[in-house]
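Reviewers asked in the last cycle whether our approach scales beyond single polypeptides. To address this, we selected a multi-component target totalling 268 residues and predicted its structure end to end. The input consisted of the following lines:
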Amino acid sequence: MDLATDLNAAFSALADPTRRAIVARLAQGEATVMELAEPFEMSQPAISQHLKVLERAGLVVHRVDGTKRPRRLAKAGIDAMDKWLAMLRKALEANYERLDTLLANMESRKKGEQ
Amino acid sequence: MSKMTLTTEGDTDVVVTRHFAAKPEALYRAHTEPALIQQWMLGPEGWTMPVCISEAKPGGKIRYEWTNGKKGFYLTGEYLEVNPYSRIVHVERMHLPDPTPDNHVETRFDPNGAGTLMTIRMTLPDAQTRAAMLATGMERGMEASYVRLEGILE
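The resulting structure, written as structure tokens, was:
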């Protein structure tokens, strides 16, 4: 998968409020499906479905611990989103810095006319 | 000067705020007059806006075309409400080249100290569209209407 496909899957996965809440919980540390299901009024299979979407999107990984499959955030996936957002943010801020300059020029021209 | 803020609200909205030293009238003109828009609404280095149509009246057309010399894309839209110099409501869509779902945008310019607080509220049709917008990678940061990771995780 290329970067754009990865990012598309990641942002789509996070369009769902339950999955955002799961990611927020995992940001505090590893958790089992049972622990993740607890705060939600949802069955464990329903939570497992959400986790599958997050894993496919590259945002969550699991390890095997006996019969448990504890989940944690996938650093690479989160970092990729973070970098992408930082880049877009920079492009928008560049626009507004240009706008600051333009507005200052408009102001000084107006003063010059007076 | 306070820096820009970007947050998501509910399932469909993205809100951007930024303070400017200039008065609301100047901000309004810079957002509605083609000769001014073409000087700043450009995104990353190397991009220009050779075509800019902006008819700032209800029902007026919007068309912005960007190019970096090799590739280009464009945006079309319509003005819905225009209140000089405080508020603009319009819809817009990117053509990449297929049109993206309509983005409903309210832009406010409120006096703030000696300057202006600009607040842009973008409303997308649904959560999926907002997510897709964040991921599509518009060259022009505005339409991408990204949020910081904290915003998404909230």
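Helices of chain A lie at 3-13, 17-26, 33-37, 44-56, 75-113. We regard this as preliminary and will revisit it once experimental data from Aim 1 are available.
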